[in-house]
Write a structure and sequence with these properties.
Chain lengths: 248, 248
DNA sequence: GCTGGATTTGGTGTATACAATAAATAGCAT
DNA sequence: ATGCTATTTATTGTATACACCAAATCCAGC
């Protein structure tokens, strides 16, 4: 089965992904697609924290060479979704409790601070779009696709931030949300999902009526609720702490 | 001259940089050093906005191959200090007026929001360190090294954010500050520097006495003052706007 | 003399080959 | 039998070669 050595001139037709690519994508878009694929897989916990990401394996799967994979891994590392240890390669980041606190504090500061601006720029079209996103999220939740729901919830928060009109802060929120998804995947209870069913809809309501302060307060409670739902136990796997176990 | 093809076992002794390296740096640190060198050069405006950064040239200067340079350029691109256009290569980012507004709004939100935390964690040692930084900045300013002063000022703000204890937000501030330096370099008046002489010292005073709210308000004014000192004229160089010039 | 197209050239995009290192394993000695 | 050391192996780090695209140049035609 190892037919990987055949050096065809053109880049290999990349054995069908999950969706059929238009083939000769500009290569740049191809990278973007691969980046999204890996990123989504991490966020949806199909790749679990700690999982090693070998360059050869990824290169093989996506049909490009290690060069491109490395580029993507470095980007993911800068976003702190993967950890790059010097000569050990890449692995999915396992967020610590401290990091989790930092991330949620940061969200508290930024997302809440953005609400007044969002309320000001909120129009009918935007509200409709957000409602549709919230609907999809509820649906995913109902059909038991928890991981997908987590990602859709993150998408919702990011879109919200984008509506503030500040691209820089929106980008920050994007990074915070993907890290949050990772945190939820690790510390969240399996049955109990982060964003409660109707929170997002309620939020849209406040924003639609231009009530920025109300939305801000609600967002604050919303985020606090998510954070509170986490069970912050760091199970260490390496070094099973013999000292403590045997009462050193 | 072109003795580069000689495949010596060790990596080439890298023809002395500007400072003599300890030679066999771990390679990782070498990359970091190069990254800093380029980043500083941009922030200090020795590399002006729009300047092209050819991979070959950089590889030649730093004595590593294009592979490493590309990695560094990609990192700088993610931090938005350089712009990477698909087949044209890298160039120093020329911030637009919109971006400048976003960056300063973001700083307003984040840095001000951090002040109470900083005030809470402020000790004698931290205050002394900050005062020393402020001193260096003043000195650079006095000796006419405006670019250096801009960088030192950015360093000050970053250190402040780090003292909040939130590493994630500190990293955001770091990025905002380097972009701000770029903005100052483009839109700032030559003679009139951003951070007024004693602002930073005053700020340390408020923080030292644990007066977080006061520090917050002061920081807000401080940032507003910097932003107000900019002359937001975008001189377009490409397409000299014939329509407008000849009253289309 | 100027415009339009073909050719050349400079520079990036990608793959691959090779070197180096850390982990795993096996062998040896105690 | 166990612990230490040497060899092997698996995987990353780096450089370089080659392909490809875009812009600049040059030539021809009008």
């Amino acid at each position: 089965m190892s037919d990987t050595q055949a050096p065809e001139k053109r880049r290999a037709p990349v054995k069908e992904g999950k969706e059929s690519k238009k083939e000769s994508k500009e290569g740049d878009e191809r990278h973007e697609a691969i980046y999204r694929a890996v990123s989504d897989a991490i966020v949806e916990q199909r790749l679990k924290p700690g999982a090693r990401l070998r360059e050869d394996a990824l290169a093989d799967v996506f049909g490009i060479s290690r060069t491109g994979i490395r580029k993507i891994l470095q980007r993911l590392a800068l976003e702190q979704l993967v950890t790059l240890t010097p000569r050990r390669g890449a692995s999915v980041t396992r967020p610590t409790a401290d990091e989790a606190k930092d991330v949620f504090d940061a969200r508290q500061l930024i997302e809440c601070g953005l609400m007044p601006d969002v309320a000001r720029r909120m129009g009918e079209k935007e509200a409709a779009e957000l409602r549709e996103m919230a609907r999809q999220e509820r649906q995913a939740l109902r059909s038991g696709q928890q991981s997908v729901a987590i990602r859709l919830s993150a998408d919702f928060h990011v879109r919200l931030a984008q509506l503030s009109g500040n691209a820089t802060l929106a980008e920050f929120v994007e990074r915070l949300c993907s890290r949050s998804s990772l945190i939820l995947a690790v510390y969240g209870h399996p049955g109990h999902l982060g964003c409660e069913s109707h929170d997002h809809d309620d939020l849209i309501g406040y924003l639609e009526t231009g009530n920025g302060e109300r939305a801000k307060a609600f967002m604050s409670r919303h985020l606090k609720a998510i954070e509170a739902s986490l069970s912050m136990v760091e199970e260490e796997e390496s070094a099973p702490d013999l000292q403590q176990i045997f009462g050193g």
